[in-house]
Amino acid sequence: TRSKTYPAVSKCRYPGVGVSTP
């Protein structure tokens, strides 16, 4: 995922939150 707010992309760490994670 990109370092943006992606609510749909819960692949980083937080499901549904879409935090700015690398």
* Cα distance spanning the termini: 7 Å
Unreliable parts: none
- Provide the structure class: little secondary structure
Mean pLDDT across all amino acids: 52
Detailed description of the structure:
The protein has 22 residues and is largely without helices or strands. The chain is 0% helix and 0% strand. The chain contains no helices and no strands. The protein is globular, with a radius of gyration of 6 Å.
Provide a short characterization of the protein structure.
With 22 residues, the chain is largely without helices or strands. The protein contains no helices and no strands.
Q: How do the helices and strands line up, and which of them pair or pack?
A:
Elements: no helix or strand
Keywords summarizing the entry:
single chain; 22 residues
